[in-house]
């Protein structure tokens, strides 16, 4: 292979691996799988929620039960029964062993607020700094910006 072709193949494989990383985190979120979500981050990664202060991912308890007040502040719900996250518009700006990624998420959360069924639909923009460590792409910094949210009226199953 020529050097140019080898570079193109490597960059394509890197972009695919980074995009898979973004989807893997969403899949872990949908299944409330702490191990899957946390495996997407470097050991020293930080998470910024809606313009707040950066917090170490290791302190957030991703995928673990959250206190109702914490969960309500983050999502508007006291308890989440199920989450469906669809990732889209994943844009990767690759620079050797680092990359910046912007993506959009449509997340539907079904759960409870004040003991009543509630559904919360949210549009989220994610900005990620990604690094290659030991041959594997990981999130080093994630910024989560809520763009919009609404609540449809819940219907009984089968309606």
Automatic annotation (TrEMBL):
Limits of the SnoaL-like domain: 11-142
Instruction: Fetch the CDD domains from UniProt.
Output: NTF2_like
Q: Which Pfam families match?
A: SnoaL_4
Write down the Gene3D superfamilies for this protein, in alphabetical order: 3.10.450.50
- Going by the entry's taxonomy, the superkingdom of the source organism is recorded as Bacteria
Q: Which organism is it from?
A: Streptomyces ferrugineus
Protein name listed in UniProt: Nuclear transport factor 2 family protein
């Amino acid at each position: 292979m020529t050097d140019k072709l080898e570079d193109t193949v490597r960059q394509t494989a890197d972009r695919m691996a980074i995009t898979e990383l973004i989807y893997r985190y969403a899949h872990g979120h949908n299944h409330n799988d702490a191990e899957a979500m946390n495996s997407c981050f470097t050991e020293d990664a930080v998470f910024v929620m809606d313009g707040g202060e950066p917090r170490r991912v290791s302190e957030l308890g991703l995928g673990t039960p959250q206190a109702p007040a914490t969960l309500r502040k983050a999502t508007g719900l006291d308890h989440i029964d199920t989450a469906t996250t669809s990732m889209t518009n994943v844009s990767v700006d690759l620079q050797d062993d680092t990359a910046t990624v912007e993506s959009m998420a449509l997340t539907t959360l079904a759960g409870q607020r004040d003991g009543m069924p509630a559904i919360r639909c949210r549009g989220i923009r994610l900005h990620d700094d990604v690094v290659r460590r030991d041959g594997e792409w990981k999130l080093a910094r994630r910024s989560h910006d809520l763009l919009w949210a609404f609540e449809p009226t819940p219907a009984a199953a089968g309606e």
